[in-house]
């Protein structure tokens, strides 16, 4: 049975658990639990951690941005708690190095999969909450947030590039952007999509990601950057 270096993880996050078994549970993927016939995995802690992360970030945004209305606060929070952001937070503390996976998941590089990382990060927050209390998990989460996203309000301008490009294209040319999948590479369990986007027939951006929608978002971001650089921004493309 594989053993994760949980003492090292505690040093990385700066928290010493009173009950280390909670941390081990948080790092136990379902594939590992199934392979070794364990009676626990990290799904229950993930459920708790999801709520913990939501309330901490909600309170933080509420006090940090007193001038923002509910709609904008909700958009920022949604951007912070989505799978991509939570996986980014997890990678910033190398959480994938400590997740216990079954052999199949290990061979498939599951420790670097966004879904696995985001679930483990939520489970970790749930475990910290149970073991250390609200103050400790709040300090941990806000420290990770500060290190990865110093100004969350800026997400309002970058969180939906597809929507921004759609608005521009419809307003300028009366038609939506066209997204095309150029290639799909890699194994079926870990594909890589390459997508390009055309606006009024002109190729403006490409993006690659593990999900088609994420690749489209990346392509839209590239297209918006190209449009902003174009001297004809105000007179057509």
Characterise this structure.
With 237 residues, the protein is mainly alpha-helical. The chain folds into two domains: 6-158, Orthogonal Bundle (Ribonuclease iii, N-terminal Endonuclease Domain, Chain A); 161-229, Double Stranded RNA Binding Domain (2-Layer Sandwich), CATH 3.30.160. The chain is built from twelve helices and three strands; from the N terminus they run αααααααααααβββα. It has helices spanning 6-13, 20-26, 30-35, 43-64, 70-81, 83-92, 103-107, 114-132, 134-148, 155-158, 161-173, 212-229, and strands at 178-185, 192-199, 202-209. A three-stranded antiparallel sheet has the order 1-2-3, covered by helices on one side. Strand 2 (192-199) and strand 3 form a beta hairpin. Helix 4 runs antiparallel to helix 5 (70-81) and helix 11 (161-173) crosses helix 12 (212-229). The longest helix has 22 residues, at 43-64. It is flat and about 60 Å long. The chain starts with 5 loop residues before the first helix and ends in an 8-residue tail after the last helix. The mean pLDDT is 91.
What is the topology?
Layout: H1 6-13, H2 20-26, H3 30-35, H4 43-64, H5 70-81, H6 83-92, H7 103-107, H8 114-132, H9 134-148, H10 155-158, H11 161-173, E1 178-185, E2 192-199, E3 202-209, H12 212-229
Antiparallel strand pairs: 1-2, 2-3
DSSP strand tally: 3
Order of the strands making up the biggest sheet: 1-2-3
Over the alpha carbons, how many angstroms does the gyration radius reach?
Answer: 21 Å
The computed structural class is mainly alpha
- Overall pLDDT score: 91
Q: What is the count of structural domains?
A: 2
Instruction: Please describe the biggest sheet, giving its number of strands, its sense, and whether it closes into a barrel.
Output: 3 strands, antiparallel
- Helix fraction, binned, reads 55-70%
Shape-level CATH architecture of the largest domain:
Orthogonal Bundle
CATH topology of the largest domain: Ribonuclease iii, N-terminal Endonuclease Domain, Chain A
Unreliable runs, pLDDT <50, ≥5 residues? none
- The general outline is flat
- The N- to C-terminal Cα distance equals 60 Å
In CATH, the homologous superfamily of the largest domain goes by the name Ribonuclease III domain
H-E string = HHHHHHHHHHHEEEH
User: How many helix segments?
Assistant: 12
Highest CATH level, the class of the largest domain: Mainly Alpha
Strand content: 5-15%
């Amino acid at each position: 049975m594989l053993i994760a270096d949980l003492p090292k993880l505690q040093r990385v996050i700066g928290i010493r658990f009173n009950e280390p078994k909670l941390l081990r549970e948080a790092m136990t993927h379902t594939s590992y639990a199934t392979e070794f016939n364990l009676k626990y995995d990290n799904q229950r802690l993930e459920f708790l951690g999801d709520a913990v992360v939501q309330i901490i970030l909600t309170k933080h945004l509420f006090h940090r941005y007193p001038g923002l209305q509910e709609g904008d606060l909700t958009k920022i929070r949604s951007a912070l708690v989505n799978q991509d952001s939570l996986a980014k937070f997890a990678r910033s503390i190398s959480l994938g190095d400590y997740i216990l996976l079954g052999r199949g998941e290990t061979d498939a590089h599951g420790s670097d999969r966004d879904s696995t990382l985001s679930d483990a990060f939520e489970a970790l927050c749930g475990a910290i909450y149970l073991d250390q209390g609200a103050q400790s998990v709040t300090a941990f989460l806000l420290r990770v947030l500060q290190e990865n996203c110093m100004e969350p309000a800026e997400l309002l301008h970058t969180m939906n590039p597809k929507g921004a490009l759609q608005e521009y294209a419809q307003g300028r040319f009366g038609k939506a952007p066209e997204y095309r999948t150029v290639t799909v590479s890699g194994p079926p369990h870990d594909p890589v999509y390459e997508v390009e986007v055309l606006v009024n027939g002109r190729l403006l951006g490409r993006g690659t990601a593990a999900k088609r929608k994420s690749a489209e978002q990346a392509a839209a971001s590239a297209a918006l950057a190209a449009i902003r650089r174009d001297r004809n921004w105000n007179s057509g493309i």
